[in-house]
Design brief:
five-stranded antiparallel β-sheet
Length: 237
């Protein structure tokens, strides 16, 4: 297969179908816009399996995604999309950059979810932007922005329930969306949903079960990912 793209945590390959790509989950881990790097054995497999389970549930709940099928331990086939260069962050609890920007103590639960938009750009540090920025930069139309926000909130509602049933608190997460090349008038959920892009805290202990274990040098990174996968498999079968 022809290699098309390599990012911090995944590679994309062409397939015989011009509308389908093969996505590979790597063992690489990065934080702080790539300033901190490491490799963890089995990370690609764990994220692939977690994301496959989550995307399968989202599809069953009526959320259109780019997912086609799981190929093997570290590869999935996905619809080819033109990525909307806007990341959508949904926050249910104060953590991470929100606390650094506002001075709010970590752990404060919000009255309702906060939705943020940022430009998808490592070079710029994924800066936060509002609807007006996005319009003037031509990143998405007003209708698309409405769709991104509504879809992100729908995903949030589904995942809060799923992770709660797994004994986990969904603190925040980021999403990416794309326009399928075979249906450019629509928008689907793309990329992945895994502990790399979600903050998950154990409901009983508050223990962090996500990439913050790597960011903060807490240790047992893959053990936490394995625990998340085990709980999802027990819940979703």
């Amino acid at each position: 297969m022809e290699p098309l793209y390599e990012g911090k945590a995944k590679r994309l390959w062409a397939t015989d179908d011009p509308n389908v790509l093969r996505m590979e989950f790597k063992n690489d881990a990065t934080a702080f816009n790539g300033e901190k790097k490491a490799q963890f054995e089995d990370k690609g497999r764990l994220n692939n399996e977690i994301s496959t389970l989550v995307y399968g549930m989202l599809e069953r709940e009526g959320v259109p995604t780019h997912f086609v099928r799981r190929v093997d331990e570290t590869h999935v086939d996905v619809r080819k999309v033109d990525i909307v260069m806007v990341e959508v962050i949904v926050r249910n609890v104060a953590a991470g950059s929100f606390c650094r920007r506002t001075g709010v103590e970590e752990g404060r639960e919000f009255g309702q979810p906060i939705v943020e938009f940022s430009i998808k750009s490592d070079e710029l540090g994924d800066p936060l932007v509002n609807d007006d920025y996005i319009r003037e930069l031509g990143l998405a139309t007003a209708d698309e922005l409405t769709q991104l926000r509504e879809s992100a909130l729908k995903v949030n509602g589904i995942l809060i329930g799923l992770f709660r049933d797994c004994g986990l608190r969904l603190v925040d997460f980021k999403l990416e969306f794309g326009r399928p090349v075979d249906d450019p008038g629509s928008i689907v959920l793309a990329d992945e949903i895994s502990p790399d892009g979600c903050r998950l805290w154990d409901l009983e202990t508050g223990e962090k079960m996500d990439k913050d274990r790597f960011r903060r040098d807490l240790g047992n990174v893959m053990e936490a990912y394995r625990e998340v996968l085990g709980r999802l498999k027990a819940e979703l079968g």
